[in-house]
Amino acid sequence: MSDSTSTLDTSAYVAELHSSNEQALLARIERAIQEGELAAGTNAAVLTGLVQCVWHGLSVRSNGDTSHEDLLATAQLAHHLICQQLTSPTS
């Protein structure tokens, strides 16, 4: 979005939504760590950033010509790698 007068309110609103979603995700990841769903020592802020990067990347790619199947495969791989790394007792 360009920073014209007509888009500033929309940009601020979208930024607020992103921030709210990120805070909700961070809180959920912190709870998962406390409840033992994720390995102790997991950095909740870093994991939140990683998930946000994957999410935003999928969003950008979905606006292009990336197929649904490719987007789903990417999301599944990210999920697998995150779970494999963060649920193992040695991570």
Write a brief caption for the model.
This protein is mainly alpha-helical. Helix content is 75%, strand content 0%.
Give a description of the structure.
This protein has 91 residues and is an all-alpha fold. It contains 3 helices and no strands. It has helices at 5-34, 44-62, 68-86. 4% of the residues are buried.
Q: What is the CA-atom radius of gyration, in angstroms?
A: 16 Å
Oligomer: single chain
The number of helices is: 3
Helix-strand pattern, N to C? HHH
Count of DSSP strands? 0
How many strands, which pairing sense, and closed or not: the largest β-sheet?
Answer: none
What is the approximate shape? flat
Structural class by secondary-structure content: mainly alpha
- Unreliable runs: none
Fold topology:
Blueprint: H1 5-34, H2 44-62, H3 68-86
Helix pairs in contact: 1-2, 2-3
